[in-house]
Design a protein that fits this description.
Blueprint: H1 5-22, H2 27-35, H3 58-79, E1 85-86, H4 93-96, E2 104-110, E3 122-128, E4 133-138, E5 143-147, E6 152-156, E7 162-164, E8 170-172, E9 178-181, E10 187-193, E11 202-203, H5 204-211
Antiparallel strand pairs: 1-2, 2-3, 3-10, 4-9, 4-11, 5-8, 5-10, 6-7, 6-9
Helix pairs in contact: 1-3
């Protein structure tokens, strides 16, 4: 199966239905913004496929996703060859630890490098390899995360790290710092930026370096 508008709409519908079933902070905002997007056949376009080293763990995360939604796992597997995986330009191993760049990437389903452009709205996938610490960062965009794999640790606003369950909704209001840790299980998560998407994420460690 190749990626087409119907396949991507199926993935987006599964995400929307899954979030509606879970509920929680930010879900209503995400669903409202999803409903405002143009996902018509005319708006569909194929991204320029691009891979990153962390894609090596994608199959393992999709196997874990099958326990939650086998249909979504199959749909994402079908769409995977067309995904444009990217990394934030300011993220480096010097700041985030040796090997981080080999274990981190994101791919938009909706957004500038996605299947649909989006109207000040991004929805995509975060892939984070095992035993990684994605340091505290922040951005103007309010953000929802929906982990599709179990066992990841998250914190918000400097609080302690808390293990989040597969399928648990995590909401970060605008400019609130947040961080993620993986253990043996790599992380695959849906992320959604609902507005103010033009400004990239900023690592808190860069702010500390600037002050030094």
């Amino acid at each position: 199966m190749t990626a087409d508008a119907g396949l991507v709409r199926d993935i987006l519908d599964r995400i929307e239905n899954g979030l509606a079933a879970c509920g929680g902070d930010g879900v209503a905002e995400v669903r409202e913004r999803l409903a405002a997007q143009d996902f018509s056949d005319a708006a569909f376009r194929m991204p320029a496929p691009a891979a990153k080293p962390v894609v090596r763990v994608l199959d393992k995360t999709l196997k874990a996703l099958k326990a939650m939604d086998a249909g979504m796992a199959d749909a994402l597997s079908a769409a995977a060859p067309a995904l444009h995986w990217a990394q934030s330009a300011s993220y480096s191993d010097d700041i985030l630890g040796e090997g981080f760049s080999q274990n981190y990437a994101w791919a938009q389903l909706v957004g500038g490098d996605g299947f649909f452009a989006g109207d000040d709205f991004q929805l995509g996938l975060l892939l984070l390899g095992p035993d990684r610490h994605y340091l505290d960062h922040y951005h103007p965009a309010p953000e929802l995360y929906w982990p599709l794999t179990p066992g990841s640790l998250w914190r918000k606003g400097g609080s302690d790290f808390v293990e989040r369950q597969q399928g648990e909704v995590i909401w970060h209001p605008s400019m609130v710092t947040h961080a993620t840790i993986t253990r043996k299980q790599p992380l695959l998560a849906v992320y959604v930026w609902t507005r103010q998407t033009e400004t990239s994420a900023r690592l808190c460690a860069l702010d500390e370096t600037a002050k030094a």
